Structure formats: C-alpha cells, structure tokens
Amino acid sequence: MLRMLEVVGSSKEGFTEATKQAIDHLASKNEKIHFFQMIDHRGSVKNGAISEFQVILKVAVEDQK
Questions:
Q1: Where are the chain's structural domains?
Q2: Which of 8, 28, 60, 64 sits at 20 to 30 Å (Cα–Cα) from 21?
Q3: What is the pLDDT along the chain (65 residues), one digit of tens a residue?
Q4: Cα atoms in the 13 Å half-sphere on the side-chain side of 56
C-alpha cells in the first residue's frame, strides 16, 4: 500500500535542485519513495532578480503501518 504526501522543495539554483532537495529530505527520513509528480513550480523575485525556485510535489511512499 502507498500513501501520497504533498511536499514543497526550494532552491536558489533551479527547479531541478528544488525537486532534489524535497526528495532527499524525504529519503533522509527513511521514507521508501516509489514515484513523484510535480504539481506546480514557482519562484520568488527580490530586487529584480530571481531569489528562489520552489516546486510542489506529490510523492508516493510506502505505507509503513
């Protein structure tokens, strides 16, 4: 059985790095990840320059019950 988590990743480098940050964080919590789906991506701007990239992911993890 799988359960779905919704997580947000962020990075100053790009969307790929933001995705990796979110997945790496779940993996560090010993979640058994099966797949992910990018739901949305966005960024923030400060002083006329991109300051952060963000992704919203749905991640399927093994239900550990």
A1: 2-57
A2: 64
A3: 999 999 999 999 999 999 999 999 999 999 999 999 999 999 999 999 999 999 999 999 999 76
A4: 6
